[in-house]
Design goal:
It is an enzyme of class 2 (transferase). By secondary structure, this protein is an alpha+beta fold. The protein folds into two domains: 120 residues, Herpes Virus-1 (2-Layer Sandwich); 49 residues, no CATH class. 19% of the residues lie in helices and 8% in strands. It has two helices and six strands. A two-stranded antiparallel ribbon has the order 1-2. A two-stranded antiparallel sheet has the order 3-4. A two-stranded antiparallel sheet has the order 5-6. A hairpin with an 8-residue loop joins strand 1 and strand 2. It is elongated. The termini are far apart. The N terminus is likely disordered.
Length: 169
Protein backbone atom coordinates (compact mmCIF):
# COMPACT_ATOMS: atom_id res chain seq x y z
CA UNK A 1 0.00 0.00 0.00
CA UNK A 2 1.42 3.37 -1.04
CA UNK A 3 1.43 6.15 1.55
CA UNK A 4 2.27 9.80 1.19
CA UNK A 5 3.29 10.35 4.79
CA UNK A 6 3.76 8.36 7.98
CA UNK A 7 1.10 8.29 10.70
CA UNK A 8 1.48 11.12 13.18
CA UNK A 9 3.21 13.49 10.76
CA UNK A 10 0.18 15.79 10.48
CA UNK A 11 1.61 18.06 13.18
CA UNK A 12 4.69 18.68 11.05
CA UNK A 13 2.81 19.93 7.98
CA UNK A 14 2.61 23.70 7.51
CA UNK A 15 -0.72 25.43 7.72
CA UNK A 16 -1.06 28.31 5.30
CA UNK A 17 -3.05 31.51 5.30
CA UNK A 18 -2.66 34.90 3.65
CA UNK A 19 0.73 35.24 5.37
CA UNK A 20 2.56 32.08 4.30
CA UNK A 21 4.66 30.36 6.94
CA UNK A 22 6.93 28.59 4.45
CA UNK A 23 10.39 29.72 3.48
CA UNK A 24 10.06 29.20 -0.28
CA UNK A 25 7.44 28.63 -2.95
CA UNK A 26 7.15 24.91 -2.13
CA UNK A 27 4.95 23.48 0.61
CA UNK A 28 7.34 22.02 3.18
CA UNK A 29 7.35 21.49 6.95
CA UNK A 30 8.38 24.47 9.05
CA UNK A 31 11.84 24.34 10.54
CA UNK A 32 12.37 25.57 14.08
CA UNK A 33 14.31 28.61 12.87
CA UNK A 34 11.32 29.60 10.69
CA UNK A 35 8.73 29.68 13.50
CA UNK A 36 7.71 33.28 14.12
CA UNK A 37 5.34 34.63 16.75
CA UNK A 38 2.88 36.86 14.89
CA UNK A 39 2.63 39.20 17.90
CA UNK A 40 6.22 39.82 19.03
CA UNK A 41 7.68 38.78 15.64
CA UNK A 42 10.56 36.89 17.31
CA UNK A 43 11.97 34.32 14.89
CA UNK A 44 13.44 30.93 15.68
CA UNK A 45 11.09 29.95 18.49
CA UNK A 46 11.11 26.25 19.38
CA UNK A 47 7.93 24.40 18.41
CA UNK A 48 7.22 23.59 22.09
CA UNK A 49 7.28 27.33 22.85
CA UNK A 50 4.57 28.04 20.28
CA UNK A 51 0.77 27.93 20.53
CA UNK A 52 -0.62 26.17 17.48
CA UNK A 53 -3.82 24.69 18.89
CA UNK A 54 -6.13 27.27 17.34
CA UNK A 55 -8.33 26.28 14.40
CA UNK A 56 -6.57 28.75 12.12
CA UNK A 57 -2.98 28.67 10.92
CA UNK A 58 -1.69 31.62 12.93
CA UNK A 59 1.18 30.93 15.32
CA UNK A 60 2.04 32.70 18.54
CA UNK A 61 4.57 32.16 21.28
CA UNK A 62 3.10 30.93 24.55
CA UNK A 63 3.98 34.19 26.33
CA UNK A 64 2.18 36.41 23.80
CA UNK A 65 -0.94 34.27 23.43
CA UNK A 66 -1.11 33.95 27.22
CA UNK A 67 -1.05 37.75 27.59
CA UNK A 68 -3.72 38.07 24.87
CA UNK A 69 -6.00 35.63 26.71
CA UNK A 70 -5.32 37.34 30.05
CA UNK A 71 -6.31 40.76 28.66
CA UNK A 72 -9.50 39.40 27.08
CA UNK A 73 -10.54 37.71 30.34
CA UNK A 74 -9.91 40.97 32.21
CA UNK A 75 -12.12 42.70 29.60
CA UNK A 76 -14.88 40.19 30.51
CA UNK A 77 -14.78 38.55 27.07
CA UNK A 78 -16.08 34.99 26.96
CA UNK A 79 -15.38 34.23 23.30
CA UNK A 80 -11.68 34.86 22.83
CA UNK A 81 -10.62 35.03 19.20
CA UNK A 82 -7.29 34.57 17.49
CA UNK A 83 -5.26 37.80 17.90
CA UNK A 84 -5.00 38.24 14.11
CA UNK A 85 -7.46 41.06 13.38
CA UNK A 86 -8.65 39.43 10.15
CA UNK A 87 -9.23 36.04 11.80
CA UNK A 88 -12.48 35.11 13.52
CA UNK A 89 -11.32 31.72 14.83
CA UNK A 90 -12.15 31.25 18.52
CA UNK A 91 -9.56 29.86 20.92
CA UNK A 92 -10.63 26.66 22.66
CA UNK A 93 -10.55 27.08 26.46
CA UNK A 94 -9.23 23.55 27.06
CA UNK A 95 -6.08 24.42 25.11
CA UNK A 96 -5.61 27.71 26.98
CA UNK A 97 -5.78 26.54 30.59
CA UNK A 98 -2.01 26.22 31.00
CA UNK A 99 -1.43 29.71 29.55
CA UNK A 100 -3.07 31.74 32.32
CA UNK A 101 -3.29 31.52 36.09
CA UNK A 102 -5.84 29.19 37.67
CA UNK A 103 -7.65 32.23 39.05
CA UNK A 104 -8.03 33.84 35.61
CA UNK A 105 -9.03 30.57 33.98
CA UNK A 106 -11.71 30.04 36.66
CA UNK A 107 -13.02 33.57 36.02
CA UNK A 108 -13.26 32.74 32.30
CA UNK A 109 -15.05 29.45 32.97
CA UNK A 110 -17.49 31.10 35.41
CA UNK A 111 -18.28 33.77 32.81
CA UNK A 112 -18.91 31.07 30.18
CA UNK A 113 -21.29 29.24 32.54
CA UNK A 114 -23.16 32.45 33.38
CA UNK A 115 -23.47 33.27 29.67
CA UNK A 116 -24.92 29.81 29.03
CA UNK A 117 -27.26 30.15 32.03
CA UNK A 118 -28.58 33.42 30.63
CA UNK A 119 -29.07 31.93 27.15
CA UNK A 120 -30.86 28.88 28.58
CA UNK A 121 -32.92 30.94 31.06
CA UNK A 122 -31.56 29.11 34.10
CA UNK A 123 -32.13 30.53 37.58
CA UNK A 124 -29.92 30.75 40.65
CA UNK A 125 -31.23 29.43 43.94
CA UNK A 126 -31.61 32.52 46.18
CA UNK A 127 -30.24 30.54 49.12
CA UNK A 128 -27.11 28.84 47.75
CA UNK A 129 -26.73 30.33 44.23
CA UNK A 130 -26.75 26.89 42.56
CA UNK A 131 -27.94 27.14 38.96
CA UNK A 132 -31.27 25.42 38.34
CA UNK A 133 -32.83 24.42 35.02
CA UNK A 134 -36.60 23.83 34.97
CA UNK A 135 -37.54 21.38 32.25
CA UNK A 136 -41.21 20.78 33.10
CA UNK A 137 -43.75 20.91 35.91
CA UNK A 138 -44.86 23.76 38.11
CA UNK A 139 -42.86 26.83 39.07
CA UNK A 140 -42.05 25.55 42.58
CA UNK A 141 -38.41 24.51 42.67
CA UNK A 142 -36.80 22.58 45.47
CA UNK A 143 -33.06 23.13 45.22
CA UNK A 144 -30.53 20.47 46.23
CA UNK A 145 -29.89 22.60 49.34
CA UNK A 146 -33.56 22.13 50.32
CA UNK A 147 -34.63 25.73 49.68
CA UNK A 148 -37.98 26.10 47.89
CA UNK A 149 -38.48 29.04 45.54
CA UNK A 150 -40.51 30.25 42.57
CA UNK A 151 -38.74 29.71 39.25
CA UNK A 152 -40.53 32.72 37.70
CA UNK A 153 -39.67 35.40 40.26
CA UNK A 154 -37.09 33.64 42.47
CA UNK A 155 -39.01 34.53 45.65
CA UNK A 156 -39.18 32.09 48.54
CA UNK A 157 -42.03 29.63 47.94
CA UNK A 158 -45.10 29.68 50.20
CA UNK A 159 -48.61 28.27 49.70
CA UNK A 160 -49.81 31.84 49.13
CA UNK A 161 -47.25 32.15 46.34
CA UNK A 162 -49.20 29.88 43.97
CA UNK A 163 -50.67 32.95 42.24
CA UNK A 164 -47.34 34.21 40.88
CA UNK A 165 -47.90 35.93 37.53
CA UNK A 166 -45.34 33.59 36.02
CA UNK A 167 -47.39 30.53 37.04
CA UNK A 168 -48.82 28.57 34.13
CA UNK A 169 -51.99 26.42 34.27
Amino acid sequence: MKRNRADGDDDELPQQDDQSNVSDEKSCPLKTDELVCEICMVKGKAREDMYEKNKCSHTYCLTCIGKHIEVKIQENKTCISCPNLKCKSALEPEFCQSLVSKELFDIWMDALVMELAKEENWRSCPSCMTLVDKTDGCLRITCSCGFKFCYACEASWTDAHRDCEGDSP
